[in-house]
Structure formats: structure tokens, C-alpha cells
Specification:
The complex is a heterodimer of chains A (308) and B (656). Chain A is of the alpha/beta class and 308 residues long. Chain A has 2 domains: 3-126 and 246-262, Response regulator (Rossmann fold), CATH 3.40.50; 129-242 and 274-305, Rossmann fold, CATH 3.40.50. Chain A contains 12 helices and 11 strands. Chain A has helices at residues 3-26, 42-53, 83-92, 104-113, 129-139, 158-166, 183-192, 211-220, 230-235, 245-262, 280-285, 293-305, and strands spanning 31-37, 59-64, 77-81, 97-102, 120-124, 145-151, 171-177, 196-198, 225-227, 239-242, 275-278. In chain A, helix 4 (104-113) links the parallel strand 4 and strand 5 (120-124). In chain A, helix 5 (129-139) crosses helix 12 and helix 7 (183-192) packs parallel to helix 8. Chain A is globular, with a radius of gyration of 22 Å. Chain B is mainly β and 656 residues long. Chain B is 5% helix and 55% strand. The longest helix of chain B has 7 residues, at 40-46. Chain B is globular. The two termini of chain B are 30 Å apart. The chains are: A alpha/beta (308), B mainly beta (656). The A-B interface holds A 38-39, 43, 82-84, 101-103, 106, 125-126, 142, 182, 184-185, 201-203, 206, 208-209, 211-213, 215-217, 219-220, 228-229, 231-232, 234-236, 242, 245, 279-282, 284-287, 289 and B 5-21, 23-27, 29-30, 116, 144, 146-147, 149, 172, 174-175, 177, 228, 231, 279, 327, 409, 466, 468, 618.
Chain lengths: 308, 656
């Protein structure tokens, strides 16, 4: 970047900062929150809209549309949405930070890079394995052999999943796909040993171009795929448990509100609310009787409340 | 990783709708008809190497052979060798072809290895499968284009000239999947009859002896591509070709001596499926089929050569829309237009008949709608119908209504009533005056212009039970099918309606798995028929005179009272597997055959052993041995000299 542009940008940012300070002075008791989105696409916009609606009055919200726009701007709390925003903010500032919509393993990496700062927390994007296992048991109580295919270079915590499954008498067949391995040969190995295929957020395997043959292969064998979004269920997965951007945003709003009172952040936590979607057409063709999504939700809430 | 890649997008990415409505197969407990599914496991375990034989595994179905090279498949006993009352479709493409309205099974451009599964609907299903599904529908679904990524070579050698080679290869890509098959298949048909059948004297059975010239040879290819450029569109492109040569004719027939019949059959099929935001689906399917046959032979009637050919073209386009109104109500409706052209050439048989050529074209259209309504979670109502205008200007409505009641989650009761019509075939309407040889070069003018569509009304009660604790499913069905205006060949050249028949029976399929590695399927059918055949024969219709000694009703005689089949398969460690199949069929008198061809009880046992191996480095395969009619039980098929002795073959398959 040329020096001229740098100066211009600094000036612009100072102006913007000045712009924020003016309303701040009018609401002296208000708290200043900076929302940093990773990108300006609809996913983050949905988050931002819901987040804004869930903020209590008196909180000043300012927003950056892209992670790159953050350059150490001051705020009482920086709320990041998505991984790139979290990574950038974590590196550039030591201000209190709430990282929303971030996978739990990514957050662990982030913390490792950021010197321990008490005021850092997160709302994870993924579901805790315990909830995922409860979900599997609620949906398909008779299927006990769970299969997972993942790329060797992703870290999804297979050991934790295995122990969560084993606790309930379920078994895990997990196969790591190496760089030179054939996806469908490995998939066949997983399917041979499994009764359920659990999809994981790993775009080198579950890409929109691979998903068709993954679904068709598992469907051919009568093995249901468990997805992790509404779009999986529409594509042909049997069911999915997931949190929508809106649900994460509501939760971030609540955490922000409590921060405004206590100036403390809770520990990083998994999504409090989630949705369940079931593709009953797929269930029927596979000869599976699945409870309605609402009933599954209630059952899960109940089992989460039970002492373990 | 791409710089713009956002990990959270892995969670929220948009995906194509893969298992859309047309892709999902209907579970048996939801289907409006009785249905038998033959899947890949069964295909492999059966050990069969031709498609028609697979239907021995469907309760109540009759697999017959006019000669070893001329199979036919029917339901409700034996018809004549053209079996005109079954609709047969491959990926939605009707291969039930004019002028005979039959399926040339040996000329289909598809190998057993290309088939993913076969759904057989027992009973009329015009509302969902179009016209001419009077007795039932065979729907062959071939493997997906993306199912294979690699190469496979398979070689089969065995007794009776069994000699098959096939090469398959396929590729999966980002937006394009394709696969291709090249195959050669040959066999020498049935064994020779060496002693007169059915306690006949040598003189009576003489013509049948050593009369089995029924070699069959095909060279075929097929190609299927699946192009999916985006999340909502899918294009299915298929083409195929089969060049078949078979022995036909009889040593003792002056008008149809033993000779070769050549068939060249090809098709192109283009399908487009689009899924909309409301999960409705539009499907457009077009195909073209060309089926050419020719034969040249020397007739000893008048010592001269006869050369004749029949060329048939079919074009059809179908548009279908699946519209889900709600979670519990779905409508499938659409329209189709079909054009068939048949050209025949017949050489001079001077001085008896001059040379002639005929060219006939028929066009038909149909509108159809089928609604699936879950009235309550336990009650499913399937209703629908098809309105068609057939190639001869007949307008027909074929309705269907069926109710499936899930008395308990694993126990379903089904009851339904449906009607279907069969359009007269060109051969029946425009039968040639003189027809030596195997082909029918139809007349330009109709000889039986008043021949009406046959009508079938089917009523049934079915039960489907799943006993999970015993790993067992049971499929039971009681039915009564009424045939009206049943057609038959009245004189040697004209066809007449007039048969009324009722078919009643019980069909059962039991499936049981002993453990993860073994399965048993048992099918049983008991069927009785009654018709006005005896009265018609008494009224002077000689064609309906019964050939069976103890029953003057020729329709009733043409049905095996009891038939059964069983298929057991077991997988062992180390890649070994074993399967055995058993087939039983009571005595029967084939419908249009004389007493000579009375069919004694059929009993047959087949067995298959196989070993898969994996040499590592992506090189694997299997070797198998199939023995058919293991105990060499003596039986005949449809014609008395179709003798099937014990035979065996070995198959080696390599994948890499």
C-alpha cells in the first residue's frame, strides 16, 4: 500500500472514529460495541441484523463489513463474526473480544496465538459432540455403528467423539482421507463398516460437487447421512442438527447485554439454541421411522437436562 | 485452501438437491401397488446372466422361451410367445415395441452389470407408468453415471457356448460423471431333446428331437452421462447400441426353417431435471429408439429365398412435474407424446404372393396425474389416472385408487383398485396374409380393424409386515384381476376380442436375514383362473379349444397353480460367498401351444460360489462359479424341446 493511500485511509478512519465519538458523548452511560464481520455476504448480514435487534437500548453499535477493515479501532467490546474476523481482531487488539460463529477447534488455535487475555470468549458454530451423540441416539436408536470420513489435515476431535459414542454403547469407524487417497474408495470402507454416516464440516470432502456421489453411494447401501445444516437435509441427508446465524446472533446479543452490566465475559460456549431438520421423504425410502423434528428437539432438551 | 475460503461457510454452504423426488424409490409399504424389487445383491446371488431369468424371482411371474434365443416374460401364466401385456421400461424408456408390441430382450443395449435394480409392479399401473401396463410393469433402473470411477473387465466362460466379455469404465467429475460399457455375449441356447417328451411315441415327438438351433450372440455398448452444472439442474444423457444375431426357425418347418435373425437396436435418451425452491421438480425426458430386424432364408415350400425386414422408430417426449403441496400431499402430473413408425419389406413369394412393403405410423398422447396424500400419519391415499388417445384413435381413461393403512408402524394393509388398457398391436390389427419366417411384415390395411383394446380391472388386498426382532419381512397379497375383451388369434390371419377371464390368487414374499452375512428370500404364488374359454370354443372359436385333457378352459390351464422360488446367500470371511436358488412351477399347458408342449413340473436348483480378492494397489476383483440346474432335473420351458440340462460357467472380474 502506498504511503499516500495509507494516510488517506488513516484520515478516513479517524473521521469515522470521530463520527462514533459524537453519539457516544450523548449517551454517556452507553457501551460501545464494534461488530466485525468476516465478509459482507448474506450469511453475516443475517447475523448482524438479528444481533442488532437483540441489543438492549443504550448500546452503541458500529459495524465493519469485512475483516480487513479492522485496524485496531477502539471499543468496549469487539464482537467478531466468523473466523477471519476473529483471527484479525485477535492479532490486532487486546480489547475484550467475543468471537461468534467460530468452530471450537479454531478458537483453541486462536487462543494459543493470543496471549492469555481474560476478556476473550466465543460462541461456537459447531454442536458439542455430546449433543450430536444424543441426537444420533434419538433419531436412530437402533443404529449403533457410526462412520465418519474426514481429511487427514483437519482436526475435528475424533477421540472426543469416540469416547462420547462409546459412553452410550455406540462405536465409531473413522477413516482419515490422505492427500493421495481416492475419496470414494475410502468412503466405501467407511460405509462397509457403518450403519450411519455422519458428515463433518470438511469442505475438501463434503463439497457441493462431491456431495451428490457421497449421498448416492450411502443411499444405495441404505445408509443414512446425518448432515449439519438445513441445506444438507434438502440435498438428501436424513436429518441434521445445527444452529442458524440468527440463533448465534441472539446468543451473542444476550452475552453482550450481560457484558454491558458486568464487564465480564463468560467462558467460551457452544450454541445454546439449535434446530433439527428431518427429511421424511428420505426416511420413508430408507424404511426408517423418524420422530418429528419438534419431538426430537424436546427429547434432546430433556436428555441434556438429565444428570450424566 | 483458497484465500476467500471461510471455514464457517462449510457449515452453511448451499448444496444441490441430490435425492429429489424422482430419485427416491418408493418404499413397499407406501406403494399403491404390489411391488417386487430385485436389487444388485439379488442379481449377483442369483447367478443369472440374462435379464429375463431374473423374473423367476418375482412371485407369480412366468419366464418362458420360444427358443433359447427368444425369451419372454409374463404374469398370470403363459400367453403366446410375444407376451404383450407387460410394460417394460429402462430408465423410463419404454422398450415395448411395435409391430408386435413385445420386448426383444436379447437386443436390449444393457448388461446385467449395468442394472442398479429392477422394480416389478404386479398389477396395472397406468397412472404412474403409462399405457399398456395391463398385467404389470417391469421398470429397470440402470446404474448412475457416477457410480463407477475406474475400470472393470469381466470374462465368463462355460458350457453350452457361454462366452461373455464385458468392459466397463467410468469417471466422476466436478460437474460431469459418465460410464460406458462394451460387451460381447454369446451362448448356444437350450440342450437337445434326445427322447420324445410327455410319453409320446418316437413318431409323435420326432419333429422336436434335435431341433434346438437357438444360438444367440450380441455385441453391445451403452453410455450414460450425468451433467450437473449447478445445484438445481441435472442432465441425463444416454445412448446405446446392440447388434444381435440369433438362430430362429425349426428343422421341420418349410415356412420357417432354421436361419439367422439379425437385430440392430439403438437408442438416444436425453433427460433434464430441475428442482425448484419449493422443492417441486420438473422432469423432461426425450428418447429415440430404432429397432431393425431382418432375415433371409430359403423356403422349401417353393425353393426360393425370402428376404424381409422390419424397421421400427420410436420418439417420445414426456414432461412431468412433481409438486409437493405440503409435507403430506404431493401431486405428480404430466403429459407425453409418442410417435411410432414401422416399415416392413417382404420379398416376392411368386407365384403365391407378390413382394410388398408397408409403412405405418401411429401417434399417441397421454395426460396423467397421481396424488399421494397422507390423510393421517397412518393413512396414505394414492389416487390417479391416465387419459390416453392411442395410435388408433381410441380414447381411454385408466384410473387407480389405493389406500395404505399403517395399522402399526411395522404393519401395513393396502387395498386398491385400478384399470388399464392394452392398445392393440399393429401385428394384431394388420396381420399379414402370408407370413413365412420369424418377422411380421404387417399389412398396410387393417385386417382386424374392429380389434379393441383389452381391459383389465385389478382389485387387491395386501399386507406388509416387518418383524424386526426376527429380522423378517412378509409381503402378502390377495388379488382378483378381471380381463375383458381379451384378444386371441381367431383364424390364421385375424384377431378377435371376446375372452373374459378372472385371475385370482395369493402371492407371498418372505425375507429373512439370519445374521449380517446371510439372507433368504422365499416367494410363493398360488393362482387360479376361470374364463369363458370353454364356451367360446363350443361356439366355434377353434383357437380357444383346450389342449389340456382334464380342463376345457384353455385360460385356466395356462397358469401354473403353484409356483415358488427361494434365494439364499451367505458371505464368509476372507471374501468367500455362497448362494443357492431354487425354483418350482406346477404343470401347465402353454396358452397357444398344443398338447405336445404340455409343461411338466419344473424344479431347478442353481448355486453360485465366489471369492473376492484384493491384491492391493487398487487392484481387486472376484472369481465365481455358477452351476445351473444342479441336480439335472428334467424340465422343459414353454416348448417341449426347450430342455435345460445342468450347465455351469466361471466368471473372472477385475477392477482397477
Amino acid at each position: 500500500m502506498s504511503t499516500g493511500r495509507k494516510i488517506a485511509r488513516c484520515l478516513l478512519q479517524s473521521l469515522l472514529l470521530l463520527g462514533w465519538l459524537i453519539p457516544l458523548s450523548h449517551a454517556a452511560d452507553g457501551m460501545n460495541v464494534l461488530l466485525v464481520l468476516s465478509d459482507s455476504n448474506a450469511l453475516y448480514q443475517n447475523f448482524a441484523n438479528t444481533y442488532r435487534q437483540n441489543l438492549p437500548a443504550g448500546i452503541q453499535l458500529h459495524m465493519l463489513q469485512r475483516a480487513e477493515d479492522f485496524d485496531g479501532q477502539q471499543a468496549d467490546l469487539v464482537v467478531t463474526v466468523g473466523v477471519s474476523a476473529a483471527e484479525r481482531v485477535a492479532l490486532k487488539t487486546t480489547q475484550p473480544m467475543l468471537a461468534a460463529m467460530i468452530p471450537s477447534h479454531t478458537y483453541a488455535d486462536l487462543l494459543a496465538k493470543r496471549p492469555a487475555h481474560k476478556l476473550t470468549s466465543a460462541i461456537f458454530l459447531d454442536q458439542p459432540w455430546g449433543r450430536q451423540v444424543d441426537f444420533l441416539r434419538a433419531v436412530l436408536p437402533e443404529r449403533r455403528k457410526i462412520g465418519v470420513l474426514y481429511s487427514a489435515d483437519t482436526r475435528l476431535g475424533m477421540a472426543a467423539l469416540r469416547s462420547a459414542l462409546n459412553d452410550h454403547g455406540l462405536t465409531l469407524t473413522d477413516i482419515a482421507l490422505g492427500r493421495n487417497d481416492d475419496l470414494f474408495t475410502r468412503l466405501e470402507s467407511v460405509l462397509t463398516a457403518s450403519e450411519v454416516l455422519l458428515a463433518v464440516p470438511d469442505s475438501s470432502i463434503y463439497s457441493s460437487s462431491n456431495i451428490r456421489n457421497i449421498l448416492l453411494s450411502s443411499y444405495r447401501r441404505g445408509i443414512p447421512l446425518i448432515g449439519f445444516s438445513q441445506s444438507y437435509v434438502r440435498a438428501g441427508a436424513l436429518c441434521a442438527i445445527f444452529s442458524t446465524p440468527e440463533q448465534l446472533a441472539e446468543q451473542a446479543g444476550r452475552t453482550t447485554a450481560s457484558f454491558s452490566k458486568t464487564r465480564k465475559l463468560p467462558d467460551a460456549h457452544y450454541p445454546a439454541s439449535y434446530e433439527i431438520a428431518v427429511n421424511h421423504e428420505v426416511a420413508r425410502t430408507l424404511g426408517l421411522t423418524i420422530k418429528p423434528a419438534e419431538a426430537l428437539h424436546i427429547q434432546l432438551e430433556k436428555s441434556a437436562g438429565d444428570p450424566r | 485452501m483458497r484465500p476467500t475460503h471461510r471455514i464457517e461457510m462449510d457449515y452453511y454452504q448451499e448444496l444441490p438437491v441430490v435425492l429429489s423426488a424422482s430419485r427416491l424409490s418408493q418404499p413397499l409399504s407406501e406403494a399403491p401397488n404390489a411391488m417386487t424389487v430385485i436389487d444388485r445383491k439379488m442379481i449377483v446371488a442369483s447367478g443369472f446372466r440374462t435379464i429375463p431369468d431374473l423374473f423367476k424371482l418375482v412371485p407369480g411371474m412366468y419366464v418362458g422361451y420360444y427358443k433359447g434365443s427368444q425369451p419372454f416374460v409374463s404374469y398370470h401364466g403363459s400367453p403366446d410367445q410375444y407376451a404383450r401385456r407387460m410394460q417394460v421400461m429402462i430408465d423410463g424408456r419404454s422398450v415395448y415395441m411395435p409391430p408386435m408390441s413385445m420386448v426383444d430382450w436379447t437386443a436390449l443395449p444393457v448388461t446385467l452389470d449395468d442394472i442398479e435394480r429392477i422394480e416389478v409392479i404386479r398389477g396395472p399401473a397406468a397412472a404412474s407408468h403409462g399405457a399398456n401396463s395391463t398385467q404389470g410393469v417391469i421398470s429397470i433402473i440402470t446404474r448412475d453415471a457416477g457410480e463407477m470411477d475406474g475400470k472393470r473387465l469381466s470374462v465368463t466362460r462355460g458350457s453350452k457356448g457361454v462366452n461373455d466379455v464385458s468392459a466397463h469404465f467410468g469417471r466422476r467429475g466436478e460437474t460431469l460423471d459418465y460410464r460406458m460399457t462394451l460387451a460381447y455375449t454369446a451362448d448356444n441356447g437350450y440342450d437337445n431333446l434326445t427322447a420324445p417328451p410327455n410319453n409320446m411315441t418316437m413318431a409323435q415327438g420326432f419333429a422336436l428331437l434335435n431341433n434346438s438351433y437357438d444360438d444367440n450372440l450380441s455385441r453391445l455398448l451403452n453410455y450414460r452421462a450425468d451433467y450437473h452444472p449447478n445445484a438445481i439442474d441435472r442432465f441425463d444423457v444416454q445412448f446405446g447400441f446392440n447388434r444381435n444375431v440369433k438362430n430362429v426357425g425349426w428343422t421341420d418347418s418349410p415356412a420357417n426353417p432354421v436361419h439367422d435373425l439379425f437385430a440392430t437396436s439403438g437408442f438416444v435418451q436425453l433427460g433434464w431435471t430441475r428442482v425448484f425452491d419449493n422443492d417441486s421438480e420438473l422432469k423432461v425426458n426425450y428418447y429415440h429408439i430404432r429397432h431393425d430386424q431382418h432375415e433371409t432364408f430359403l423356403t422349401t415350400l417353393l425353393p426360393q429365398f425370402i428376404a424381409q425386414s422390419v424397421k421400427t422408430d420410436r420418439d417420445e417426449i414426456e414432461v412431468q412435474h412433481t409438486l409437493p403441496f405440503s409435507e403430506s400431499n404431493r401431486l405428480v402430473y404430466g403429459a407425453a407424446y409418442r410417435q411410432d413408425r414401422t416399415e416392413g419389406q417382404y420379398s416376392s413369394l411368386a407365384p403365391i404372393a407378390p413382394a410388398y412393403a408397408s409403412s405405418l405410423s401411429t401417434a399417441e398422447w397421454r395426460l396423467f396425474a397421481h396424488n399421494e396424500w397422507r390423510v393421517t400419519p397412518r393413512l396414505l391415499l394414492n389416487s390417479g389416472g391416465m387419459l390416453e388417445r392411442d395410435g388408433f384413435g381410441n380414447n381411454r381413461l385408466s384410473p387407480r385408487i389405493a389406500l395404505n393403512f399403517h395399522a402399526a408402524p411395522q404393519h401395513t394393509l393396502r387395498t386398491g383398485i385400478s384399470a388399464a388398457y392394452r392398445t392393440p398391436s399393429l401385428m394384431e390389427r394388420n396381420f399379414p396374409v402370408l407370413q413365412p419366417g420369424e418377422l411380421f411384415v404387417v399389412n398396410a390395411t387393417a385386417r382386424s380393424p374392429g380389434f379393441k383394446p383389452e381391459r383389465l380391472i385389478s382389485r387387491e388386498i395386501g399386507y406388509l409386515g416387518e418383524f424386526r426382532d426376527w429380522s423378517t419381512t412378509l409381503d402378502l397379497r390377495l388379488f382378483s384381476d378381471l380381463l375383458e375383451n381379451g384378444g386371441f388369434m381367431d383364424t390364421r390371419t385375424t384377431y378377435t376380442n371376446g375372452i373374459s377371464a378372472e385371475y385370482r390368487g395369493l402371492e407371498a414374499t418372505l425375507k429373512h436375514s439370519f445374521d449380517e452375512n446371510s439372507e433368504l428370500t422365499v416367494n410363493f404364488a398360488r393362482e387360479l383362473a376361470s374364463s369363458n374359454g370353454a364356451a367360446m370354443a363350443a361356439a366355434g372359436f377353434r383357437a380357444l379349444r383346450s389342449a389340456c385333457p382334464e380342463n376345457s378352459d384353455t385360460v385356466a390351464c395356462s397358469i401354473p397353480r403353484n409356483s415358488a422360488s427361494a434365494l439364499y446367500s451367505q458371505r464368509y470371511s476372507g471374501g468367500m460367498s455362497f448362494s443357492a436358488a431354487w425354483y418350482y412351477q406346477d404343470t401347465m399347458q402353454p396358452f397357444d401351444r398344443g398338447v405336445t408342449d404340455f409343461q411338466p413340473i419344473q424344479r431347478r436348483m442353481d448355486a453360485r460360489i465366489a471369492k473376492t480378492f484384493n491384491q492391493g494397489g487398487g487392484f481387486k476383483g472376484d472369481v465365481s462359479l455358477v452351476l445351473q440346474n444342479l441336480f439335472d432335473a428334467k424340465y422343459t420351458d414353454y416348448v417341449a424341446n426347450n430342455v435345460f440340462n445342468r450347465r455351469g460357467y466361471v466368471t473372472l472380474t477385475l477392477d482397477w
